[in-house]
Amino acid sequence: MVVAAALIRRGDKLLLARRRPGDEQGGLWEFPGGAVEPGESLSECLARELAEELGIEVVAKKEVAVVTHRYGALTVELHLLDAHITRGEPLPLGCAEVRWVSLGELRSLELAPADRLLLENLNLSR
Description:
Layout: E1 2-10, E2 13-18, E3 29-30, E4 33-35, H1 42-54, E5 57-71, E6 74-87, E7 97-102, H2 103-108, H3 113-121
Parallel strand pairs: 1-6
Antiparallel strand pairs: 1-2, 1-4, 2-3, 2-7, 5-6
């Protein structure tokens, strides 16, 4: 499964979403995004998923990291794209919670395993 996720910054904070308790990996935090549909680019996926789940419009700039993680029988290829909000304010429409977090707070949150791998591969000081 190919998944696109957004690295969205506001000052020194990053946007994270918390998965709903009943969902796969429920209660864990992640970079917002979702599964790429057939024929869809990573940036098109992000635009669709963030409109549906957070009620925002985004523009994806470039890919900043990619990791592969196995969840049981499912292998996920997670692409993180640098993105910015062009319209709207994030709301938890398709997730339990959204939050702007500092790098220190981000490192202390319980992230989904693939998102934790992304965090380990990022140089967020830039």
